[in-house]
Each structure stands twice: as structure tokens, then as C-alpha cells.
Amino acid sequence: MLPFQKACRIISVYVLVASGIPAVLCQTAPKSESGPAIVYVKAGHLFDATSDNLRDNVVLVVEGERIRKVAPAADISIPTGATVVDLSKDWVLPGLIDCHTHLEARADHYDPIWDVKETPFDGGFNGVVNANKTLMAGFTGVRDVGSQPFFAVDLRRAIDAGDFPGPRVVASGPPISITGGHGDMNGFAPGVENLMYPAERDFQLADGPEAVRHIVREQVKYGVDVIKILATGGVLSQGDKPGAEQMTYDEMKMAVDTGHAAGRKVAAHAHGTEGIKDAVRAGVDSIEHGSLIDAEGIEMMKAHGTYLVADIYNDDYILGKAVEFGLPKENVDKEKMVGRLQRENFAKAVTAGVKIAFGTDAGVYPHGDNAKQFHYMVKFGMTPAGAIRAATSSAADLIDRAKDEGTLEAGKYADLIAVTENPLDRIEVLEHVSVVMKGGKVYKDEIGAVAKR
Ligand code: ARG
What we know:
The protein is built from 13 helices and 18 strands.
């Protein structure tokens, strides 16, 4: 058995046993003497995300992990014996990208007491299971924006090494919070957090620009791709207000300057109106949540080219589960204050032409349900094509992976999905993806698309 086949066999068994999710298929054409395996993907309808349009009857020639050519079916002759992925009756799109996940987190408890109960090992196990669920849902890429140090970096490495199936990961470290801010352990007796090992804390505290500079540099040293700052208060934290600015402008500016100097993008959690504006002024690359943005903030985001990554599905799940989870009244009230406004303000930002990238905060709701957000993105002002591009070409641009991901063109990774209905007619079809290919390998095939010609 070749090492690759052996690895696939191990992964398949592992995934079946560990998570009860369909095993990796690992079909590839036999290697020719001269180079990597060639797979022909027949696409009945192709949304390549370079425009808002569909093209019919196209073939993608995949060589190894990348697309070598995309051409009309009539122009490609498929040799006998070649491996074909027959999607000639289906709609083929680039693999989706979720720019706001927490793969370490589970969505069945929000109580901060878990911060002192769970170990980094729990987070690691969650990550293996959640990475698989995310990939099977058609998300071949994520930007993971907050976890214990340095879970997301290790997850990225393990998935890239082929240790287990998962999306490509753009990794942040622990979010950077002010003392008492959205990331801090508020409401505990003094000293409780000192009983935790530093590696158990899924946040880093910084007060003052110098402290911020040190943490950003340290995170870069440990291999993060992106810096996550907590600019304002939050919903699911204790004792703070989503609308209140937390980091100062100078602290944010330091995070941005230090991150950018190291070639890292900076994402700012920001619900509050003034915090959003200071984050944009400071030069962050994306505003996460953006709930209470006003007209001026919208204009500023347009002027700066800042992306909005708004988790507008979350509200349904949080309020739906509040009783079952015993969610404290404080958090329920904050969600009620923010949820509806976030959706209305998202619609205003879309209308104004703010750049939108898809991001859900998966981990607050169950991993694998990421695509449920598309419904709301369309309901609140985007076209179906626009919503898909937010999760493909625009997402890849935001996370600095446009060279490799986000569109189906020659030279890019062969990361693609298929659905059995036209997503431009009914966006919700993306909630059930039948085929997932990542880097030329088929990880999910519910319709028997992989065949020999
Ligand atoms: N992590 C976010 C926070 O606690 C979740 C916000 C969810 N609510 C929403 N309407 N998007 O602030």
C-alpha cells in the first residue's frame, strides 16, 4: 500500500469511528509515470465566482491538488480510463470559506464556568470533530478567529499534513482583550484565573499600546496568520456591554501597525458604533459582527475598503437555545438588543456597497450548520450570487488567499462543491452539499459522482 493510500485508509477508519461521519473517499486517478493524477470534473453548471454568472457544460481538468484548465466540455477530450467526477447534472461552485469560526468550541454550553473545566485537550478533540463537520458542509476554508494558544495554528498544520480531514485554516491566536473586556473572565473571584495554566486561557489581556505590541509580536512568533482584537464589548461575555468601546484607538492602531508590519491581517470584534469607527480608522481589515454600525461607520468602511463579516444567523440559535442552556438573563437581553439591529444594519451596509465576507461565528451555533447563514444574507439584501461570492472570492481576498482559493480558475486549488439545485434560485440548497473536493481529493460524494470513464 502506498503511504498516501495507507493514510487515507487510516483517516477513513478514524473518521468513521470517531465522528460517525462519512469517511474520506480519497479517490484519485492512477498516477501516470510523468506526474500527478489527473481528474476530470464535468460541471453541468459552473459558478466559478469570477462573476455573478453561471456557465453550462464545462470541464475542469484537475492535476494533483490544483486546477490546470477550465474549458467548455466540447473542447476537452477525456481519455478512456481517466477518473471523472461526473457533476454534469449538478451545480458546481468553489469550496466555501467561513471567515469567522471557532473550531475549538462546542455550541452546547456558553457558561464561562467551562473555561475553568475544559483543558486544551478538550479543545483539541473538539477541533478534530468540528473540522470534519465543517469540511463535509462544503467549507473548504476557514479563518479561525479565537481559541487557546495556539490551537488554530496546530490545527492548520495537522490538516495540511493530512493527519485528519478539515478545511484549510487561516489561524489566529487567542483574541486580544482589555482587562475586564469581552475576552476576559469576568464575574469570577479575584485570582481564579491565576489557577489556570496560561495555555488554558482562550484570550490574552493587554492594556496600553506597548502591551498590545508585545502580544501581537508574540503571536506572530508562534505562527498565527491573523490577529484578532476585541474592540468593543460582547453579547456572550459577562459584565460588559456590546455597544461600549473597549480598546482605545491607540491600542487598536498598535495592533494594526504591528500586525501589518509582520504581514498579518487584523480582524476586530466590534458591535458598538464608536468602536467600529475607531477600528476602521486604525486600519483593521475586517469588522466582525458590526451590529450597531451607523451611516458614518458605513461610509468609513467603504472609504477604507474594510470588510464586514456579520454573523447574522447566530441570533436564531442563541435565542432558540437560551432556556435549554440556562443562558443568563444578561446575555439574553444583550442578544435581544443586538440581534435585530445587526440584521437591519447589515442590510444598510449591503445597500451602501460595503465589502462583505461570509463569517458565522460557528462554535456559538453547531459546526456544520454554517450555510444556514446564506438565507439571512439574501433576506437582508444580498443577491444569491453576491452571498456566494462573499463566501468564495471575497472571503479569499479578505483572508489573503486569493492566489490559491475562492474561484475556480486555472492555477487555483481544486477546492469545489456541488449541489443538486441551482443555488441562484434557492440559496438554501447550500445547506446540503452533495460533493466536496479539496485539493483534488473527494472527501464527500453522496451522488456517486466519482467514476471511471
Ligand atoms: N461572539 C459574539 C459575542 O458574544 C456573538 C454575538 C452573537 N449575536 C449576534 N447577534 N451576532 O458578542
